[in-house]
Amino acid sequence: MVWRTRRLAEASVAVAAATALVAGCASGSGGSTSGASGDTLTLWTHNAGNSTELDVVKKIIKEFNGSQSKYKVKLQAFPQSDYNNSVVAAASARKLPCLLDVDGPNVPNWAWGGYLAPVDVSGSEVPLSDQLPSTVGRYKDKVYAFGFYDVSLTFFARKSVLNEYGIRIPTIDKPWTKAEFDSALAELKKSGKFDYPLEMGTGGLGEWYTYGYSPQLQSFGGDLIDRDGYKTASGTLDGKSSVEWATWFRSLVTKGYLSKKSGADPNKDFLAGKSAIQWDGSWNATKTAERLGDDLAIIPPVDFGNGPKIGGASWQWAMSSTCSNKAGAEAWLKFSRQTKYFVDYAKATSTIPATDAAVQQVDGYQPGGKFNVFVEFARKYAEVRPVTPAYPYISTEFQKATQDILAGADPEDALGQAAKDIDNNLKTNNYDAG
Amino acid sequence: MTTMIAALERLRPVRRTRTTHARRRESLTALGMATPAVVLLIVFLVVPVALAFALAFTDARLISPTPARFVGLRNFTLLFQDPVFYKSLRNTAYFAAVVVPLQAGLALVLALLVNAKVRGVNFFRTVYFLPVVTSMVVVSLLWTFLYRQDGLVNHVISTLTLGRVDGPDWLGDPATAMPAIILMSVWQGVGFHMIIWLAGLQTIPAELYEAADLDGAGRWHRFRHVTWPGLRATRTFVLVTITIAAFSLFTQIRVMTQGGPLDSTTTVVHQAVHTGYDQQQTAYAAAISLVFFVLVLSVSLVQRFLTREKD
């Protein structure tokens, strides 16, 4: 009898504890605020592994803390690979910092998810209207984030190699057409000097796939989603133009122009002469120019019919919606918007400064400089990734479809399945809320 | 198991002679000692499983402004229309069907070899056990390099065949990706089960072998009628642990192929993590986990039934 009662008691204690825990987890959405204790604000950045950019952040914080006595900003840096997960975890625990940086295409998702608050930076030294449009993170007509720089996609090649095979070096006014590009690759392949004449970083998984290849899809006339209302991907992602892109993309592999899984460091392989033309980002331009000098040709994206395209938006700064000291957070954001910091960021990251005034002061990027073409690319060709909270999902689906296409899947099936999955996701999620 | 029950039976008459007071003290001690484990189990096992069950019927997302709503069986309807899910099931079954007999058998052979009383046997025990103590992530990364088109594996193949055979791109070809991962997984895991078999082998009394020798039994008969029956309990343990480990195949996939090429290596657990984290579909991932739980449970029950003590 005693035993039975005890067992019963033990069981009920266990059940009660479990229920309490479940209940505790479920009710985690109390509307508390955090991210600051009084006038000390916490700031998160993804730059722990990138000391040059981190130094700029530290410098701005130091000068901000010294410029006034009311607010103090405290830095916490994360490695990039863990950053997004840390933010998501912090958000579920209602422990977001006041200030944080965010990758451009994620802004709508985080704004919709209630992580970010709209920011008002009017009255700062640099007005938003001076910036490259792709460096301002907007969602539903509100500004949620702004960046100090942008990056551009580009081809790198050696002028000497192109001349040797009689390939025209394209200019911004007259980029390569699809036919020209295909025949250039055929010529280079025929030479037998390159296992794979084209290097596009196919081994780099993750966001690079969407960032690097969806502009080519758009240049063919396709897109990731129907941008009119962002309600469906069917008919766009699996439409005729998109299938044409996929068929062409797969043909690069079957014709032996492109490795379906390139090495860990594509730029290094290109510099070592393993490939003739590399599709890369402007962030590698300084390094490549140092090695190749005047032999380096910076080539605009190919015009596949719908004009050359590159992706827009890089890392941007934002304020969390749970910030308990929004005035302090906005003070920091406004303070950071000085031309000298735009210059510092661009120099530290070898990226495109977001304003004209800063462009004038960064070596190589000022008009006439060897990297000024990137500013032109960003201005003329930039297409931001779909501005919808569904973007992270769309991106993973596109990555999978592209990988499957490279591995030999039927282009229509692969894109059709991706479009179907995206439509399901759009239907089952209330992306208009928030 | 049998020994435990036997031990308990032996204890019983002793207990009866004790006073109620002593008994209560004893049970309090037992309760105190069990508490840490019970609390940990509840927090990290019971609660997550209960949450996963509940979440599977909602539209919860990793990032969302709206609270999770009950949506009935929608996740399961979607799941059973998802072609990738069927591929995941097929790949998981394929992996388990090959790995369970292969790894168990190979581990037994190794155990028999290192159980021999020869000099230097400790060296081989250590060598076979080394991959087990190495992190699976590290092992997977290394083998990714070995399996490259221009990697070591293909160099060896080319040298052995005097350059006549060019190995495939092991992880890049849908036909070879899963076999390549199976080979690596067996290599990594076989040492652990070798140790388990070895422990089992050493519980078999030497007298039984002596008796068999006196009866003139050969090597095979000695294995068949002394060793094999003596490994009964070990066999069940090895079978169950390898099966469960095989079903939860994830790390290798995540590091080496991410489920590709053409879904040839996607598994149920990999799909659950991919949808739950990379794609933020918490509820859908919970539904996958629930189905996975039911599958593993039924396989375990079947195994339990087949290996039950038949008396």
TrEMBL record, chain A:
Keywords: Signal, Transport. Residues 1-28 form the signal peptide. PROSITE patterns: PROKAR_LIPOPROTEIN. InterPro entries: SBP (IPR006059). Pfam families: SBP_bac_8 (PF13416). One of its GO terms (molecular function) is maltose binding. One of its GO terms (cellular component) is ATP-binding cassette (ABC) transporter complex, substrate-binding subunit-containing. GO terms for biological process: maltodextrin transmembrane transport; maltose transport. Belongs to the bacterial solute-binding protein 1 family. This is Sugar-binding protein.
Automatic annotation (TrEMBL), chain B:
It is a multi-pass membrane protein. Its main location: membrane. Belongs to the binding-protein-dependent transport system permease family. GO terms for cellular component: plasma membrane. The keyword Transmembrane helix applies. InterPro entries: ABC_transporter_permease (IPR051393), MetI-like (IPR000515), MetI-like_sf (IPR035906). Pfam families: BPD_transp_1. One of its GO terms (biological process) is transmembrane transport. The chain crosses the membrane at residues 28-57, 93-114, 126-146, 177-199, 237-255, 283-302. It is found in: Cell membrane. SUPFAM superfamilies: MetI-like. Residues 89-303 form the ABC transmembrane type-1 domain. It comes from Streptomyces dysideae. Keywords: Cell membrane, Membrane, Transmembrane, Transmembrane helix, Transport. This is ABC transporter permease.
